[in-house]
Design brief:
single chain, 345 residues, alpha/beta, Rossmann fold, 10-stranded mixed sheet, 9 helices, 21% strand
Length: 345
């Protein structure tokens, strides 16, 4: 099936390409929002792509932005790194691995106007890495993560994303004074699900994770040691439903999963970490609340933060398109770094 004939004027050809993108294979899981919104954002992104990207490099020599790559199991994988101004002062620094949503890419997650993680890196003094998920396209667009039961081509091809991220952390740590006790993971949607898989399978690397709008959909989880977990979710998320399942905004259910719920995810990790099953309210304000399950074994913590509104989004962030903006009742970045900073070292 074709949207229109292949021989067209440049303007109509662009419209044809846009229409053809709707027919992309199951790997195109637009987990950052409805498909129409993602298509509009992709058109806008084409305008910003005229700005030269950071050059490919193999060494980090000063604060700033870097584009690096490695080969893992025969696949060329890319990632971005931002080093804050105090990141090369010689003192050990934390490392945050931030993973994009399904159908996104590393540039999208690194966009400070949307997620604010570059600004948070400068403010709080941590190095942030943005890995790119598995993509069938040379430019790395429409990428997904193999988070277990989700998502897309990464899941279907059983891509070793855990091994890739392990290798990436090792490569960054060889060039920067990363404190191995302070390596954390976060992610949006499918990226949040990948953070849960890292907690399950790489607890020797990651001491804590912060998952935003994505629940634990791992197939096997035997971490062997406690890993602290912060989960952030909107009650009205229309993609990864708070109480479980794929919502009406899910684009391609065959490429996704019947998502686990936020409450079940919390129950799983309070049991894995040996926490108190009864939560304590640690934040209660207009539009948001946070509950902590404590104490836990080994000084670990499990915390759930819920916003009343915001949908499938990053609280405190911004969307260029869409009817509903992310909740501003809390900032995912601020809550996350406060959570990480309170963990034992």
């Amino acid at each position: 099936m074709f949207c229109c004939p292949p021989k067209l004027s440049p303007l109509k050809l662009m419209l044809w390409l846009l229409c053809a993108s709707v027919l992309l294979p199951s790997s195109a899981v637009a987990q950052d929002g409805p498909l129409r919104q993602r298509l509009k954002e992709r058109l806008q992104q084409r305008q910003t792509e005229r700005v030269p990207a950071p050059p490919n490099t193999t060494s980090i020599t000063q604060p700033g932005d870097y584009r690096l790559s490695l080969v893992h199991q025969g696949l060329s994988r890319s990632y971005l790194v931002h080093v804050p101004q105090r990141g090369l002062a010689g003192q050990p620094v934390p490392l945050l691995v931030a993973m994009h949503g399904g159908g996104g890419n590393m540039e999208f997650q690194a966009d400070d106007s949307r997620y604010g993680l570059i600004s948070a890196s400068e403010r709080d003094g941590f190095v942030v890495a943005f890995p790119n998920g598995y993509s069938r396209f040379a430019g790395g667009k429409l990428a997904t993560w193999n988070a277990g039961n989700c998502c897309g081509a990464a899941r279907d091809g059983q891509v070793d994303d855990v091994g890739f991220i392990r290798q990436m952390v090792s490569q960054i740590s060889a060039q920067l004074p990363i404190d191995p006790r302070l390596v954390y993971a976060t992610g949006m949607s499918n990226g949040a699900m990948m953070a849960y898989r890292l907690a399950c399978e790489a607890p020797d690397v990651f001491s804590a994770i912060a998952a935003v709008a994505g629940t634990d959909n791992t197939r096997l989880c035997q971490p062997g040691k406690p890993v602290s977990v912060l989960h952030v979710h909107a009650k009205n998320d229309d993609h990864v439903l708070f109480h479980g399942g794929a919502g009406p905004a899910a684009v391609n259910r065959s490429a996704e999963a019947d998502y686990s719920s936020a409450p079940n995810t919390m129950a799983k990790w309070t049991q894995l970490n040996g926490c108190s099953p009864v939560p304590k309210r640690v934040l209660d304000q207009a539009g948001a609340l946070c509950e902590s399950y404590a104490p836990c074994q080994g000084g670990a913590q499990v915390q759930l933060c819920v916003t009343d509104t915001g949908g499938h989004a990053w609280p405190g962030g911004h969307k260029t398109r869409g009817d509903e903006q992310p909740s501003q009742a809390i900032s995912a970045n601020a809550v996350m770094w406060d959570f990480f900073s309170r963990l034992p070292r």
